């Protein structure tokens, strides 16, 4: 059986700087930052008291959840993921299956890192107090890793594979590649893919304890996340969700769906926490192999990549990431692709980062712009030494391009790279 082409026909996003797709497109194009000060973190004596948290109001929630559902749900990750996933499905022009039989051709892979942490806390308090019966009927849904994919599967009536994945910061990008593989092999016609992450001190506290978050921008939150900057002092934690509908090209063409971009291919691997790799640092050889394999699997040459949307978290690893890209691509200082990081505007949304950043990457391809790297007007000298500063745009560049490579590198020395191409001709 011939391998299928895979395209993107719908997207949804809930990010710290916007909670719907049109606003998100406007936010990244104009460099709008969604990082704010959180008094709760200050009251709990966090060193880093700023974070990226989506502004999801009660009015927004009422558009996606029934009053009964809202009484039982207490999981920010499920809220974010349901909104992003539902919006992506609608954006693709797909209907909710009300038939007795499910849609056997459609599936879901929606990943997470931590889901239902506030519900866990509530459950522990009730159980310890001997009040287990007060847990409610949704406690399992909200605290199992596949809770969101199961919830969306029921709402949308999907009858193909409905599952989750979890691989730290690579989760969302990995989910895209898992859905791509399923469609490419002919096992599904369309897959809703994405990832989400809860917000709050119980999610972010461990990172604060590791002292890898910035402590010196509590009074200036929009300046705190500084990928590739000489004054970067750590990543700002964030949360949210991103979602994409992947579809077999022929199916999309047959139903007249709009097409945002094509997924050419990608790769996932691990550095094995060897050769300089560890739980928190990547094996550089593993990263370079992942990039090269993604390019090879996409059927292109390294020189065809116009833009890189990097992982680039505003730590000491930023320069190393660019060295790995330069080595893998075999590029010179002046012909390196344009490179940007969304995290200056959103912070690091952890397991939601990859999917939110994939949405941002595809919007750039579709709408012909390369968003700027805010807070990077003092490019780190180690980066200036290896690539031309003009390849790290500070302001948005309004220009079309053809191919973008998006990377995510996560805790546990795990890597994922996906390659997107601008809209194919119908």
From TrEMBL:
Residues folding into a coiled coil are none
Main location per the UniProt record: cytoplasm
One GO term (biological process): fatty acid biosynthetic process
| Limits of the Ketosynthase family 3 (KS3) domain | 3-422
What Pfam families does the annotation carry? ketoacyl-synt, Ketoacyl-synt_C
InterPro entries noted in UniProt: Beta-ketoacyl_synthase (IPR000794), Ketoacyl_synth_C (IPR014031), Ketoacyl_synth_N (IPR014030), PKS_Beta-ketoAc_synthase_dom (IPR020841), Thiolase-like (IPR016039)
The subcellular location is:
Cytoplasm
One of the record's GO cellular component terms: cytosol
Enzyme superclass (EC): transferase
What does the record give as EC number? 2.3.1.41
Q: Which SMART domains match?
A: PKS_KS
Q: How does it assemble?
A: Homodimer.
Q: Which family does it belong to?
A: Belongs to the thiolase-like superfamily. Beta-ketoacyl-ACP synthases family.
What is the name of the protein in this document? 3-oxoacyl-[acyl-carrier-protein] synthase 1
């Amino acid at each position: 059986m011939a391998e299928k082409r895979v395209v993107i026909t719908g997207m949804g996003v809930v990010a710290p700087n916007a909670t719907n797709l049109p606003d998100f497109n406007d936010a990244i194009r104009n460099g709008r930052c969604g990082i704010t000060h959180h008094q709760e973190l200050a009251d709990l004596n966090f060193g880093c008291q700023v974070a990226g948290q989506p502004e999801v109001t009660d009015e927004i929630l009422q558009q996606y959840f029934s009053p009964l559902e809202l009484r039982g749900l207490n999981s920010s990750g499920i809220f974010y993921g349901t909104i992003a996933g539902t919006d992506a499905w609608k954006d693709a022009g797909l209907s909710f299956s009300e038939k007795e039989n499910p849609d056997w051709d459609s599936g879901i892979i929606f990943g997470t890192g931590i889901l239902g942490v506030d519900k866990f806390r509530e459950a522990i308090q009730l159980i310890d107090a001997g009040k287990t019966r007060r847990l409610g009927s949704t406690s399992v849904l909200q605290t199992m890793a596949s809770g969101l994919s199961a919830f969306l599967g029921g709402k949308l009536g999907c009858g193909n594979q409905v599952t989750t994945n979890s691989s730290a910061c690579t989760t969302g990008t990995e989910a895209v590649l898992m859905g791509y593989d399923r469609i490419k092999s002919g096992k599904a016609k369309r897959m809703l893919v994405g990832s989400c992450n809860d917000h709050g001190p119980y999610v972010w506290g461990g990172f604060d304890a590791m002292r890898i978050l910035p402590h010196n921008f509590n009074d200036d939150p929009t300046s705190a996340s500084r990928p590739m900057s000489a004054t970067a002092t750590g990543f700002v934690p964030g949360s949210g969700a991103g979602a994409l509908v992947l579809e077999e090209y022929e199916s999309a063409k047959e139903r007249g769906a709009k097409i945002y971009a094509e997924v050419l291919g990608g790769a996932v691997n691990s550095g094995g926490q060897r050769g300089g790799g560890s739980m928190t640092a990547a094996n550089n050889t593993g990263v370079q192999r992942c990039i090269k394999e993604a390019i090879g699997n996409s059927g292109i040459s390294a020189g065809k990549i116009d833009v890189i949307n990097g992982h680039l978290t505003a730590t000491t690893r930023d320069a190393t990431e660019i060295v790995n890209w330069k080595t893998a691509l075999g590029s010179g200082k002046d012909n390196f692709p344009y490179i940007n990081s969304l995290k200056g505007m959103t912070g690091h949304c952890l397991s939601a980062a990859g999917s939110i950043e994939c949405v941002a990457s595809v919007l750039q391809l579709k709408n012909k712009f390369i968003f700027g790297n805010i807070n990077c007007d003092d490019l780190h000298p180690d980066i200036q030494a290896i690539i031309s500063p003009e390849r790290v745009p500070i302001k948005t560049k309004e220009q079309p391009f053809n191919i973008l490579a998006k990377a995510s590198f996560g805790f546990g020395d795990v890597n994922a790279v996906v390659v997107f191409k601008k809209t194919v001709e119908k």
